[in-house]
Amino acid sequence: MKNKLISAKEAVEKVRCRDTVCTTGFVGTGTPEELIRALESRFLKTAAPFDLSLVFAAAPGDGDSRGVNRLAHPGLLRRIIGGHWALVPKLGELAINNAVEAYNLPLGVMSELFREIAGQRCGVITKIGMGTFVDPRQSGGRLNDKTWEHLVELVNMRGEDWLLYKTFNIDVAFVRGTTADQHGNISMEHEALTLDNLAIATAARNSGGIVIAQVERVTSDPLSPRDVEIPGILVDHVVIAEPENHSQTWATQYNDAFAGQCREDVSSSEVMPLDDRKVIARRAAMELPLRGGVVNLGIGMPEGVSRVAEEEGFIEDVTLTAEPGVIGGMPQGGLDFGAAINHHALLHQNQQFDFYDGGGLDIAVLGMAQMDAHGHVNVSKFGRKLAGAGGFINISQTAKKIVFVGTFTASGLEISVNNGELSIENEGSVAKLVPDVEQITFNADFALENEQQVLYVTERCVFELTPAGIELIEVAPGVDLEKDILEQLPFEPIVNNPTQMDVRIFTDAPMGLVQRDELTTRRRAKQSKDLKPRGVTRLVPVM
User: Fold this and answer.
1) Residue of 323, 459, 464, 474 marked active site
2) I need a surface site. Which of 50, 121, 268, 408 has the fewest CB within 10 A?
3) Dihedral, CA atoms, 536, 541, 542, 543, nearest 10 degrees?
């Protein structure tokens, strides 16, 4: 260990100009901030290293200045390859301004790519991304004119078209754990997520690169082999982080429930106000399986679905999952996004996407920033705003049922809900239903080919994807079909006697979606004995 334990300043001196640097971190969780800060500091003082290629899966940033946002200095970066960009806006500006070569690939593919690099294979061969903007027949994930190299190829195998995401070498890996022993073995007992730390470390090692591990502490005792997440044979250097640079998430220094060390009581007496978000969440919640089922809820508006399920008493009857490897429990929101409490299991991120990509999800509820006449959805790019695809493409192309949620218009929409009816008080100035989306993050034709069930839920109506086109199937009580819906649409949906949305959605009282049976009641009573009291849990949208 004496040869491996060094300062952050010494560690980043190992980074050479034009290196490819890969960092772990998932949005607000598990970012190696000590190492990133040290790299930024070195560059600002010495103008080196320069022309780096930066690789990450899930936007390790806070939407402002922390995480890899620190690296958005002219000359420091030459190329960026990322799966999710929403929380790294400073890097997004570089991409939009044509200042760097930039790629957006699906988050799940990025995770699987690390594993393929580790095994020194040619790439990830998958259907994920077919028909979307990452398809080489569209942009191949390239984000600007400066980006010339094709990282995605269309290949034909066994008479079928597939996408090949090509591997590349990683020169430096920034990984993160909790404890390092004298051999450089790394455990992760205080981390909220396991992520792709092992795959990234192995990828760098087998590329002939170096692995720098940021940890909370070092022990003189050997770690139990069962606790080791990154073996010392992969680790070149260990850096002990300052506490402020090793918070569990951007919002939480440490919560033992995030680390799975205890359970918390997440029941809340606070009820969501009956506004447009709750109306949409309620209608989406009606699609959840009431007895079992594996679910993914996207970030933002879909988070309200779990609140509704809790209010209605069946949150324990579905298994919520999240992209970074969380199985069960309650995924968190805001700058705690990625963490969870009371989860049943925590997988490596690439393992989670193996499950997703293979069709393991019964239903996904995802945001809908833009929808068009074809049923395509865009959540990744709007003008100069680069959100990135994240896990959206993986999930939306493989879940058995997809429910897209979003308001009918944006920027100024005001509604009221009274006596079981919805009224449009002020129409939003920005149309979200458009003739053609700016970028295809979800391809409706691909969904039809794969016989997925697809709904589009807004506060005033519900559409369904059918082989014949987009059909308007439900209208909210109190809403004028012609004035409030059809006149606002830039395309003509199929209208064939749409039914009225369930009036319970618009009544400020429990809907009664499911009755607590005796078995469920007994199970919850038993679980409550192991729970640590906690205040109200709020899921705060971050995008």
Assistant:
1) 323
2) 121
3) 180
